[in-house]
Design brief:
765 residues; mainly alpha; Tetracycline Repressor, domain 2; 5 domains; two-stranded antiparallel ribbon; two-stranded parallel ribbon; elongated; Vps53_N; endosome; Vps53; Vps53_C_sf
Amino acid sequence: MRDLFERLEMIRTKATSSEKTVKDITGDIRSLDTAKNNLVASMTTLRRLQMLESGAIQLQSLTDERNLREAAQSLDAVKALQTSFKTFMAVERVATTSRRIADAQQRLKTAAMEEYENFLQEAGSTTPIRSTAVPDAALALDAIGSDAVNALLDWYCALQLREYRRIFRATDEAGQLDNVSRRFAWFRRVVKQHDEEHSGGFLEGWQAAKALTARFADITREDIKSALIRERPKLQVTTLLEALQATMEYEAQASKRFGGVPFSQIYAANPRPNISSVFEPYLGLFVEAQDKALAELMANYRRQGTTLPSQADITNNAGGPPPASSPGSHPTVLPSSTELFYFYRQSLEQCSRLTNRSAFRDLITVFRRYLRAYGEDVLRAALLSARPPRPDGRRSTSLSTDTRTSVQDLQRWCLVLNTADYCANTCTQLEQRLKAKIHEEYKEQVTLEPDREVFEAIVAAAVTVLTREGEMAVEPGIPHKMMRGGSGNVQPWLSLTQVHGKSSYVDEVRTSLESVAVVVRQDVENKRYVRSWCDRTAHVVLLKWTHALVRLLLQRPSTPGQQPTSLGRSRPAIEQLLVDLYEIKATLLELPQHTPSEQSSASALGYARHVERNVGRVEALLRLMLVPLDEGDATSQKGELREEAFLSEYVRLCAVDLTGAPGDAGPESGLASLANLQKAIDLKCGNAPGAGGGGTAGARLSDALVDRFFALVDAAVAAKATGSESVAGRDDRPTPAGLATLLSTLEMDPPPPGALVTPPPALDF
């Protein structure tokens, strides 16, 4: 190992010695190479310096000779050489040459500017600019640099607009706001002259036309701003809009000229605001003008109300909005509504051409205010009728229920409904249009939902008014003629010995109801509301018929000892009422007048189910009244059988679960149905509420039926516990649904005849 280390050390020593020997041998060679490189660089620099000095002399000579084209080329070459001597500026010879070049460059700039001045300031010159030295001067200035070019453009723009500033001074008539269009006409002539006579003297990259347009925009913007401030106290909206329109038309033309670039970015080196931006703070005048115009329109609409214009008025309004109906027919919506939205559309288009910012938002606020005013003061007012002044001198308004409604009134209310529906739908479209046009900054503030809800509330109120009219139309038949004058005299019904077809009042109900329905079907445009009216009218008619039925069932005969003692025990009377109910049902099913193609539609089938369900409840009550009861001897075997039959029918028709506990899901439990049972017994026996007479035969029968019902419940519970089935609880016949619902909501002291059951429409928005 020692020998190995000694050998390695010896090799390292020899290598170091060899390296030193090589460096000694090549050192002189490296020195010679460095000297050679320095010599070459010095010779190159001296040669370039000679070229720079020669170029400077040549540049001076060409400048003195006013040979601008060659001087521009020489200047380009000199500048290229000059970049090599940036680190030698401390050398006197280099510094002297640089000063000579700068001096020659300044004289070249002066010579070039003189060429422009001589050509552009020479009056009446017809020499084409390309035939002069101006294009060579352009090359010289471009070679000098951007500062020289900008100085030329500033001078040129000032020269071209010098006359403009003199003519359109703010203190002169031409500088007034109503002469804005003359400004742009004047400048168009300047631009035309530039394109035809001067553009050849400017390099394309300088964008001289853009610079001229930008300078004109700066001057005009400040002039118009001053004019607006000065004329603000007496500023007319017409003058303002004409000036703004002329400005925006010019900006659009200028933008199109420069490739569709936004006007504010035409001169990209220094973006500027639009000229039209100075009008923005004053556009409130436009909004105020629209507000005044809408106020006049609304005052006219209030005077007109829902009165349709004459044919002469329609003819004279040929330039207005399109008619809302076909020629020869009365309008389906109020012409004032289409006129209002036509005005909105025109104002919207005009304002969107002017601005889409704060003034546009303010205009939307005005739109909303008059939409609500139209709904409240025109449409809502049409659903109200004036009452005589109150003792305090104030006027009160309420729906009129004092007189029968004419066809004209029905048509007017249908017109109100159609108009409110049209306005609600148009509000949705208008909101979408407004959001599409307004600036993104204000888009979240745009909503017409509250205004749409006002019109939807008016639609609902109009349907309610029409429903009340349908109720008033059937009033002579139900309950007055049904109750033989409305007094509740049950005597004629108890005198019946057999069914004689439908009663006379049914035809009157059919005729009266159809007189309203035919107008609703023909005049209400949206069939969804026709269906709504039919649904509500069917419910109201059946409710009035049920109220009259309850009054008849609870009325005792005026002759003592007369048999039967109540309507519920008169089988012929109940059967006659069933016949009448079927006729009423047929009348209600015919209300919508569905075409054959509509018979199988979801709407037609849904309405039929609605009528069937409501009629079925009343029919079930009459079916229960058909079950005989013996009032004379409730303890006899025959009486007990009839009582059990009555209770069994009640259990079946009401779907009572005798074994269920109160609160159980599913069918009504036996104990929970006790209140309904008591109502059914009172109707069967003619026990009017508060009539007293606990010792009468009717009261005894009522008590016996309740006791027997408890016995049935106990028997059913016991049978369920032992696994057997109560006889009274078993019935395989189909169970009509709804009697329990009818009894639970039935008023045993219904409103008096003549009282409307349809609630008044909600017209407080």
